[in-house]
Amino acid sequence: MQYRQLGASSLNVSEISLGSWRTFGTAIEAETAERCLRQAFDCGINFFDTANMYGKGAAEQVLGRLLKAYRRDDYVLATKLYFPMSETDRGLSRAQVLKQIDASLKRLGVDHVDLYQCHRHDGETPLKETMEALTEIVRAGKVRYVGFSEWPAAEIKRARAIDGVVPFVSSQPRYSMLYRKNERRIFPLCREQGIGQIVWSPLAQGILTGKYKPGAAAPPGSRGERRSLGRFFRPRVLQAVEKLHPIARDLSLTLPQLALAWVLRGEKISSAIIGATRPDQIEMNCGASGVNLEPAVLQRIDEVLDQVMRR
Ligand SMILES: NC(=O)c1ccc[n+]([C@@H]2O[C@H](COP(=O)([O-])OP(=O)(O)OC[C@H]3O[C@@H](n4cnc5c(N)ncnc54)[C@H](OP(=O)(O)O)[C@@H]3O)[C@@H](O)[C@H]2O)c1
């Protein structure tokens, strides 16, 4: 496993990290979660992402319980707030920031998280109030660094212009071979501001593993069998993804490894946050760390996906 610095922070994160959306505390049993976590550490993953709203606290609870078996200094832990936790608990007001960080720390069973992320921008709370509250919890030692997920460029700029508050060091955008929209505005802006990218759904929820076949039912036990995988789950896209198999084979890679190596190409991305329901998925996916893709390979990929990717 190779490691990269997260933006202008002192955090060194594994190129492949493990998330817990739709897995820990929800789709997978505690025993499977434990095996996944052990596999992650065995592969050199040191970075774990969760959120208060994943399973309404259940993901944090399971992850926190399992992390007790590991030394706190041996992993980087990230969580998030914003989405509703109850009828009245939502958003990024000072009261919510103070309340939600304490609730997350309690569920995770730790005294601090390394990265606290605003899951979305909150148009109903003055930005200054949010940034000052984030600064307060950093100064209280509950959080080391702060970040955001899917904020508009204008709000990222406004946050940076506020005096006397901690700067964002991390952005969590959706990004994969199929979904490239953030390349245009968000990546260059963040680079200018010392903000690293930790990207979600780098395998498009499993579509880029090639296991979903055009016109066929989703494989038993897969996420696609349990729930909607969104707009990429249609024959035209799945047919294009099929054409990536020979490109991966020519490089002696599996398709998930090719998709993750693509995300990690160059220096733009600090970490690709994968999800997993089985330890062998983690082992395979970590094989993407350190793989270099030549320009000719990138071009072949672009030709195959040209008509189906979003950019
Ligand atoms: N900030 C945000 O708004 C946001 C939104 C979504 C996610 N996230 C973060 O990003 C993380 C990753 O998102 P994601 O789970 O959508 O990522 P993903 O890596 O694109 O998809 C993960 C799913 O693909 C399948 N899979 C993974 N590796 C595989 C392999 N080698 N072979 C076959 N199937 C494989 C597994 O599902 P099955 O085995 O069930 O098919 C796995 O749960 C989340 O856990 C969360 O931390 C953030």
Biggest sheet features: 8 strands, parallel, barrel
* Low-pLDDT runs: none
**How is the largest sheet built, in terms of strand order?**
3-4-5-6-7-8-9-10
Number of helices: 12
Output the CATH homologous superfamily. NADP-dependent oxidoreductase domain
Question: Roughly what percent helix?
Answer: 25-40%
CATH-defined fold name: TIM Barrel
The overall strand count is 10
* Ligands and ions found: NADP nicotinamide-adenine-dinucleotide phosphate
What's the CATH class, please? Alpha Beta
* Percentage of residues in strands: 5-15%
Which H/E pattern describes the elements? EEEHEHEHEHEHEHEHHHHEHH
General form: globular
Radius of gyration: 19 Å
The average pLDDT score comes to 97
- Helix/strand/pairing category: alpha/beta
Q: Compute the number of structural domains.
A: 1
Question: What can you tell me about this protein's structure?
Answer:
The chain is α/β, with parallel strands linked by helices and 311 residues long. The protein has one domain: Alpha-Beta Barrel (TIM Barrel), CATH 3.20.20.100. Helix content is 36%, strand content 15%. It is built from 12 helices and 10 strands. It has helices at 30-43, 58-67, 94-108, 127-139, 153-160, 186-192, 223-226, 235-242, 245-250, 255-263, 279-286, 295-305; strands at residues 3-5, 12-14, 16-19, 47-49, 76-81, 113-118, 143-148, 168-171, 196-200, 269-274. The strands form 2 sheets. Strands 3-4-5-6-7-8-9-10 form an 8-stranded parallel beta barrel, surrounded by 5 helices. The longest helix is centred in the N-terminal third of the chain and has 15 residues, at 94-108. The radius of gyration is 19 Å and the shape is globular. The structure holds NADP nicotinamide-adenine-dinucleotide phosphate (NAP).
